[in-house]
Amino acid sequence: MCGVDIAHHAVEVAAKRKPARFFKQGDLHDPNPFAQKFDLILAINIIEHLSNPVAGIESIKNAAKPGAIVLVHMPTISNWLTRWEYAKLYDSDPTHIYRPSGKTVRKLFEAKGFETLRDSYLPHFPAFLTKIWPIHPAYLAVFKRNS
After folding, report:
1. Residues 54 and 23 in one domain
2. Record's Pfam families (predicted)?
């Protein structure tokens, strides 16, 4: 297991909890700090912090082996109700600089050569049903890197 976080403190905590693993401080826009590419990448609550999400997704692609799975989780705005909920929960966080819908994130990953295996709004709600019943603004997607 390898991990990268922009916060030095988060890297220190992870290293203490899992001393046999490899953790480094870094930015998603930096080159992959590890010598290998990965079969599985978790991008949990990262995309909304990126000033250049296209470059960030390209970095994820460069760190992933062909056929790798990428799991993305993020708060999102998909309709008027989630816009209100997002504002209530996240507007006070100045690091949330990118506020896409799940559909936008899916299109960005697909444009970079990823296949969408599944996407939904949490709690495990099929994305297409949010047009009928708007719910909590969390988006979860599983992508596969094509070659």
Report:
1. no
2. Methyltransf_23
- Residue ranges making up the domain that contains 6: 1-32
pLDDT band at 6 (very low <50, low <70, confident <90, very high): confident
Question: Whole-prediction pTM value?
Answer: 0.80
3-state SS, 66-115, equals EEEEEEEEEECCCCHHHHHHHHHHHCCCCCCCCCCCHHHHHHHHHHCCEE
As a three-state string, the secondary structure of 102-139 is HHHHHHHHHHCCEEEEEEEECCCEEHHHHHCCCCCCEE
Q: Calculate ∠ Cα 42-45-48, nearest 5°.
A: 125
